[in-house]
């Protein structure tokens, strides 16, 4: 790892952490709120790719596990990995890797449509369904109820996927940003 990519990884970790200070939107029917940090997770994958994007997310989760209150609502500590949002947290590195993998494969011909479809499939569908199933297991909800509750997250997460894909597409296709990544 070069110093340049170490700085990019740390910067992306900081961006995701700052997004955690934006207040969450609580949902009355479930213990997991809608958070803005997903945009940072999506952007880490889109801008840094599978290796460094995933590393930035893992660093964030390690900082959270160490007790820093970097998650939305000022949450932190090892306990959050056993709570209702555990499934979402454990899926963050997985979806970052998968979105980053597609980004790396299509890097030379990246466009908004590729980014959006990838982010919706992995960052919205996979994250929301898996996260709510694990939430249901932790809170003793039936799987069918958990999957139906995932539909509550999807409109906001699709909006977040659009925003992240737009930002990512603009930056990845900008000549000066491409120079930075070389």
Shape: globular
Count up the helices.
6
What would you say the CATH architecture is? Orthogonal Bundle
Strand content: under 5%
**Mean of the pLDDT scores?**
93
Structural class: mainly alpha
Helix and strand run: HHHHHH
Radius of gyration: 16 Å
- Cα(first) to Cα(last) distance is 13 Å
Uncertain spans, ≥5 residues at pLDDT below 50? Answer: none
Subcellular location: Cell membrane
Family: Belongs to the BioY family.
Protein name: Biotin transporter
Transmembrane segments: 5-25, 31-48, 55-72, 78-100, 112-138, 150-172
Key terms for this structure?
6 helices; 182 residues; Arp2/3 complex 21 kDa subunit ARPC3; mainly alpha; globular
What does this structure look like?
This protein is an all-alpha fold. The chain has one domain: Arp2/3 complex 21 kDa subunit ARPC3, CATH 1.10.1760.20. The chain contains 6 helices and no strands. The chain has helices spanning 3-19, 37-65, 86-105, 112-138, 143-172, 175-181. Helix 2 crosses helix 5 (143-172), helix 3 (86-105) runs antiparallel to helix 4 (112-138) and helix 4 packs antiparallel against helix 5. It is globular and about 50 Å long.
Topology at a glance:
Blueprint: H1 3-19, H2 37-65, H3 86-105, H4 112-138, H5 143-172, H6 175-181
């Amino acid at each position: 790892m070069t110093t340049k990519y170490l700085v990019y990884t740390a910067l992306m970790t900081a961006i995701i952490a700052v997004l955690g200070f934006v207040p969450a939107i609580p949902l009355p029917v479930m213990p997991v709120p809608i958070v803005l940090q997903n945009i940072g997770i999506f952007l880490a994958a889109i801008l840094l790719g599978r290796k460094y994007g995933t590393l930035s997310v893992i660093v964030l989760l390690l900082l959270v596990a160490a007790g820093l209150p970097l998650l939305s609502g000022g949450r932190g500590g090892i306990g959050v990995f056993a709570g209702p949002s555990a499934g979402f947290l454990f899926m963050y590195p997985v979806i970052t890797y998968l979105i980053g993998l597609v980004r790396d494969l299509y890097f030379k011909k990246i466009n908004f449509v590729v980014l959006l479809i990838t982010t919706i499939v992995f960052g919205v569908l996979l994250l929301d369904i898996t996260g709510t199933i694990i939430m249901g297991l932790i809170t003793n909800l039936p799987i069918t109820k958990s999957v139906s509750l995932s539909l509550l997250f999807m409109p906001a997460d699709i909006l977040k996927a659009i925003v992240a894909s737009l930002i990512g597409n603009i930056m990845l296709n900008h000549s000066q940003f491409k120079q930075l990544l070389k």
